[in-house]
Amino acid sequence: MIIGQYIDKGSGLKVKLERNDLCSCGSGKKYKKCCLLRAELQTTNKQSATASIPDAIHIAIEHQKAGRVLEAGSIYQQILRIDSDNLDALHLFGVLAHETGRHEIAAELISKALALKPDFVEARCNLGTVFQALNRLDEAVETFRSALAYKSDMAEVHNNLGLALNGLGKTGDAEESFRRALTIKPDFAVAYYNLANLQKDNGQFEGAMESYRGTLDLESDFQFVYGDYLYCQMQCCNWEGINKVINEVLVAVENGMMVSTPFILLTIPATLAQQKKCAEIYVQEKYPEVPTTSNVNDKYSHDKIRLGYFSSDFYNHATAHLMAELLEQHDRSKF
Question: The whole model's pTM is what?
Answer without folding.
Answer: 0.74
